Amino acid sequence: MDDCVTIHDAELCRWFATVFAGELTEGAVNAYMAGAAVPYLNSVAEQCDISAERETLEAAIRDWSRHTNATRQLATDFAAHFLIPGQTAAMPYASYFEEQTLFGHAHDRMRARLNNAGLGLTASENGPADHLAVMLEYLAYLLDTNRLDAHSSGYVESEVLPLATSVSRRLEEQKPSTGFYPTVASILTLYLQALADRKLTARV
Predict the structure, then answer these.
(1) Which of 1, 23, 100, 164 is 20 to 30 A from 107 via CA?
(2) Contact (Cβ atoms closer than 8 angstroms) between residue 80 and residue 184
(3) Contact 50, 190 (CB under 8 A)
(4) Percent helix, percent strand, percent coil in the chain, to nearest 5
């Protein structure tokens, strides 16, 4: 992908979703090391200041070359961040942060939205619908279909942004070996805040 290409909001949301949906494949790791994140970061940087976070992220990606098996190390980080319960767990579900449980009210709200839109889950059909990746995919759908303002006023600031912020803050409390996921979460939070501000201004 050309570094100078402007990536629209829906595609940005889908990119962020892929980061949090599951472990990075070896192909994805190699693509990032070859600069695959650059166009996305360029487009986010057009909307908000991510200079410090971008420097940290790019340094983290460059550092992958020092690992004997970067894919395995990132998989270890992913599990430690998102899959292993504990006081510092950043399990990326809205119900987990809102109610300290899974399949809570946030799951019910998201399931209703997906059903009303005729959409299935990106993740397992048996998984909670309030996973950050699913919520970002739904946001991409709203942006693609120009329904964010008309039918889902406040979805960004009341649903997706609070979850991204909670995940980001929890990740900051952890000590990952690569720093990839905490930094992407910080960039996502800044981007969503900028997106929410733009949509709020457009509604006024």
Answers:
(1) 23
(2) no
(3) yes
(4) 65, 0, 30
Q: Cα(144)–Cα(13) distance, rounded to whole angstroms?
A: 11
Cite the DSSP H helix spans in 67-179. Answer: 70-78, 94-99, 105-117, 132-144, 148-151, 155, 161-172
- DSSP-assigned letters across all residues of 55-81: HHHHHHHHHGGGSTTHHHHHHHHHIII
> Which two three-digit tokens encode residue 146?
């120009």
Average pLDDT per consecutive 10 residues, the chain (204 residues; last block may be shorter): 70 97 96 97 97 97 92 93 83 94 94 88 70 96 85 83 96 84 97 88 55
Domain range 9-203, its CATH number among 3.10.180.10, 3.40.50.970, 1.10.3480.10, 3.40.50.720:
1.10.3480.10
Beta carbons of 104 and 72 less than 8 angstroms apart: no
